[in-house]
Every structure is written in C-alpha cells, then in structure tokens.
Amino acid sequence: MKKFALLSLCLLSMTLVFSCKNKVEGEAAVVNEAAEVAQTEGVAYTVDTTATQIMWEGVKVTGKHNGTIDVADGTIYVNDGNVTGGEFTIDMNSIVVLDLEGEWKDNLEAHLKGTASDKADDFFNVNQYPTAKFEITKTTALDNDPEGTHLVYGNLTMKDQTKEIGFKASVSNIDGVLTVVTPQFSINRTDWGIKYGSATFIENLGDKAISDEFGVKITLKASAPTM
Questions:
Q1: Where residue 212 sits, what CATH number does that domain have?
Q2: Rounded mean pLDDT, 135-140
C-alpha cells in the first residue's frame, strides 16, 4: 500500500510539473460580447507597421510553439495625451513560426494558415479570412500597476466572429510617437470557433490535445502627423 501511494504521488507530481511547463503564460484576457466601438476624436496617429508586431505562443501536451504575425495598417486617435479610439488590421497571411526550421516550420505555418491540403478550417483559413481586426472600444487608466498603465478594451474579429477582449498595456507618448506594449496575455481560441485539437470539444485526443488558450504579446508604435 505504501509503495502504491508513493507511486501515485510521484505520478501526480510529474503531471503537475509537466502541466506547468506546458501552460500558456500570462493573465487571461477579459472576453465579452462585441461592444460599441469608441468614437474617434483627437489626432490620428498612423501605426508604424515596421515597428509593430504581435508575438504568439501556442501550447500542446507535448510542447509549445511561438512566432510572430504582422499588423498591416492602423490608426490610433489621441486626445490630450490619452488614447480615445482606433483600430488596426492583422495580416493573417504573415503568420511565422520561430522555433522550428525547414520542413517542420513550413508544415506548421501551412497548417495554421489553412493552406495545407484538407486543413483549411483547422485554424485560421487565410484564403477565406486573410485579415483579422482589433477596434478599440474603451481605455481605462490603472494606478500603480507594474504590468501596465491602462486597461485596453476592443473588439477582436477573427474568421468573421467578433468578441470584445480586455488586457493590460503600458502606453507612452514621447515626441509624437505613441508606444503601446502589453505583457503576454492569453485568449481562448474556441471563443472564435477555432476548435481543432481542443480537448474541450473533442474526446480521446491524448497527447495530441492542443490548449484552448494561446498567448499574445503586442508591441505597437504609431506616429503623429508631421506638420
């Protein structure tokens, strides 16, 4: 009996360690039904697509992958130093995997984009949905929070489905350059109907299960119009 108890404890410890190593890091984003987009007021700052990037992280039972995705264009409105609204478009065709090389990298990118044979709807199906969009609904200032100066809320549209998400961000505006940087936060992909490999919806996946949550970290820069 003691040996059985010890074995059970060891297996439980291994499971907990494994689960921690294969969990998306970061606070979960607040997710609500789509909300009214903020009225645009103030000065229009143009998003610098060369200095703006979204980092992503996906986790499965046997490991994790990470990469980047580009922002195609965007405008952020600033009034009296405060972000009042805006939006940016995400280029879904720009999905890149950073932790793999060669054929493995190409295969995963094709699977995520849905350009691989018979896998169009597993994830993002970029041929049918080449872009996603984020539209600010409101921002709220935070006091003495080490992870951000603001809570940013906005409607995220992917695959023609829209949900409002909220996350922390550090916002600064220096010499006409607006910078928005977030810590990594997580989003539940099934809220946008992306259920491939989800143990929540598919039984008996075993070690082929993929976490419903994926990590997102945003670095955005936008510039005021030149006089």
A1: 2.40.128.110
A2: 96
